[in-house]
Amino acid sequence: MKKINRRKFLYTASTLLLAAGGLSWYNMSKKPPLGMPIDDALIKNGQALLNKIIAIDIHAHPGRSFIEGAKDIDFKFNYYALIGRFEEETIADMKKAGFVASSFSTVSDYQILRLGKNGISARREFNANEAWQSYQTQIATLKSLITNDVIQIRTPKDIFTAKTTGKIGMLFSAEGADFLQGNLDNLDSCYNDGIRCITLMHYHINKIGDIQTQAARHNTLTPFGTSLIKKMNKKGIIIDLAHAHKKTLNKALEVTQKPVMISHALIRHKNFDHPRYIDAEDAKRVAQTGGLVGVWPAGLGLHTLSDYIDQIFRQIDDIGINHVAIGTDMDANYKPVFYNYTQAPILAGALLKRGLTQDEAGKILGGNFIRFFKEVVKQ
Q1: Are residues 217 and 279 in the same domain?
Q2: What's the rounded Cα separation, in Å, for the pair 325 and 363?
């Protein structure tokens, strides 16, 4: 008997439940169109490139580990809980496609978020010690995924080990630094856990700074945020400014002594805008630190995989090819146009077909991140 793919089964079942609950706008079983012709040669060339290079997704939630142990979740956010975790399927997809490594990111504020007509926002504040306890549960879940076929990435060298041994590399990340609870000592603990990247804020205005999608309260990076960036620099933890308000972002760029990244975003242009997009000038400032901006395949102005590839090339024009990466937000994105790692050969093949050399495509798909990571951890 053919094995039923748990994720696909639950996607279909939850779609019916969500539609019944008035959430049919988020059809998890619907696959977005490619928006471009593909053939065997394109896929073959893309797969050959992926086999040759080291491909890395700089921001993702493979299999949605972050839902483990979450309580008191907003009803409209329960679609994640309905589907459940499916890390094995996503890791298998990565292996099949030739992806070597990905961010495996916790979500600090998942349980306090809500989904409204204007998007995602915090519906309440954290209870005492709630954020730190949630982090402990989520990091334990990530550690449980380490097997003979999956290794943890603590240093750039570990990425090469994953490639040469044919294993999948997990870069432990945290989206939203709320779990630190304003205590820098907690950073030492998470570093020892193997966290090597922290997105400073998510959808909750925290003790570090403001977010893109809400009116500013701090109007800058806070004193705690300044101390946190300095300590992250010292320890060699990647600073991710995705979701950061413009004023918070720019102050962070003044403080940091090492390259930073915006792991998943799109650059706004005329007639192409959304609160989650960033200004080209800010993306350029990130690039000037030696940093990266990950191109985000969200269904916020993008409708096809071809649209996503268009944005990759636009971003190359905006900030230079050495500062562009892939940040898919896999398994927790909104209407993603790149929705499964098994599409990676199509993506890689299309980059080549549109004119990039193998070296250039290799930079975007992983090489730029390796160079960046080496700079961050260098003492």
Answers
A1: yes
A2: 8
